Automatic annotation (TrEMBL):
InterPro entries: Metal_resp_DNA-bind_regulator, Tscrpt_reg_PadR_N, WH-like_DNA-bd_sf, WH_DNA-bd_sf. It comes from Actinoplanes lutulentus. Residues 26-88 form the Transcription regulator PadR N-terminal domain. Gene3D superfamilies: Winged helix-like DNA-binding domain superfamily/Winged helix DNA-binding domain. Pfam families: PadR. This is PadR family transcriptional regulator.
């Protein structure tokens, strides 16, 4: 029998990687951290700001994102965009996601026979 705590741990691990893929995909168009939170939430990716902002900094330090401050408005905001390397990683991760999804679906359908 699976406990709620065990399931929660495994769901957290699964979501951690999917938020990276989703963020790199969304930020192929420049966006602000807060708008990324809203976009991810609307798509079903529940992520806290205190999780997302360190992730954005880590992806930037890995060369997958670039950032710049927009000071045109009353309140300066930092916006992010994927680098060419970030675009390539996003494409590769989505491809791998599709492959893994098919593999799990194939395994699951074996049980139906």
């Amino acid at each position: 029998m699976t406990t709620d705590a065990t399931l929660s741990t495994h769901l957290q691990e699964l979501r951690r990687g999917t938020v990276v893929v989703a963020s790199l995909t969304v930020l192929q168009t420049p966006g602000y951290g807060y708008s990324l939170l809203e976009t991810l939430s609307a798509a079903g990716f529940e992520v806290e700001a205190n999780t997302l902002y360190p992730l954005l900094r880590r992806l930037e330090s890995q060369g997958l994102l670039t950032s710049a401050w927009n000071t045109d408005e009353a309140r300066p905001r930092k916006f992010y965009r994927t680098t060419p390397q970030g675009d390539a990683i996003a494409t590769a991760l989505r491809s791998e996601w599709t492959r893994l999804d098919k593999a799990v679906t194939d395994l699951d359908s074996r049980g139906d026979k």
